[in-house]
Amino acid sequence: MLLLGGVLLVGGPVAAQPLPAPASSVPDRLEEFLTAAYQNSPLLGDLRGQVLQNRIDSLRRAAQNRPYVAGNAVAVYAPVSRRFGYDEAVSNGGNYGTVASVSQPLLNGNSLRNDYRLLENQGQTLRNNGRLSALDLRRTVTDQFLTAYAAGQQWAFGQDILAQLRRQDVLLRRLVNGGLYKQTQYLSYYLSVRTQEVTVQQNRLAYRRELGTLRYLCGLRDTVLRPLQTPAPPTHPALAGLGSITQRQYTLDSLNLGLQRQAIALSYRPRVQAVADIGLQSASLIAIQRHFGISGGLQLSVPIFDGHQRQLGYSRLEVAEQIRRGYRSFLTAQRQQLYDQLQNQLQATTQLLVSLQEQLRIANALVEASRQQLATGDLSILDYLQLISSTRNFQFSLTQAETDRLRVLYQLDYLSE
After folding, report:
1. Stated pTM of the model
2. Torsion angle of alpha carbons 208, 210, 215, 219, nearest 10°?
3. Do 90 and 227 reside in the same domain of the chain?
4. pLDDT per residue over 186-228, tens digit each?
């Protein structure tokens, strides 16, 4: 223990808490977290299932165009007495039969092809929605990864500062005992070390919180606290045009509206189907076995008047097309504005990084020189603490600037898809 100015300082500093050793089973790279998020996302699984359902719907539509065979049986008795009962000219006294009927749509090739195209468009929309959802998930996970990475960097740097202060603490104790510095000056240094210990603990909690959020987004149950690897900055691609994932949904919507309009037109064409049946049918249950027969023919359906529903359907599709154009025009301008803004941010952040790196280099050189002056008593402890504080602030700003630059690069990468 050390007695300074009536203040009793018991024991040495608390040991630092280094980052645990890496565990191979725990992801620590951005790509590993993204892979886990894609595999565990119920939304992406739901969309994959909807794509499979769309393929089944296409097979069902093909089956609907094949002959439809049904078995029908009827047994109806109409009792008649002197003052009760239906006219036998109408009821025949009863109706008994068992018949197998078959129907087959004819001359519906255009409708069938349009239905197939509608289902194909629906499948393409579902697949594009899957890519959009994957892109949104990637954006969310990447942003949280960068947040957790920055928190981990702050924790690591805080531990490094604390280690430097503790090493210097041993020297200052000897100098104070030798009378080179006053005990009150050392007390300020001692309080600074304790403050840095609290800061390191706070940084550790912040990193654990952000890392936990990252694992939560990815559906991981890991609790191991380990450092994250530095993410590789993506390339700087150009802005994707109308062929991008976000723009493609409006192209598919336009195609779908055209197919719906075609479907309305086809629904008002005459419909023809062949019908036939074979079986037993009689007005008498006793004589039914002697009335075996068949029948067949064509069934024609011609729309005549529907209360102007066709025109109303066309009007509704025109409104939907106007809405689609408005969304697409706004999105195109929005993406271009965001791309230009990110370009400017990237340039400004790069310049800030160069400036902060130079300032941090100078600050580290001053700290190194001040250690030598501190050992000879040519520098006050308060001045040394001020240099440490400036270095800490520069490092914090540098970490933030590096994270912001990575965010901008990833946002530009999203706009290229």
Report:
1. 0.82
2. 130
3. no
4. 888 889 999 999 999 999 999 999 999 999 999 998 888 889 9
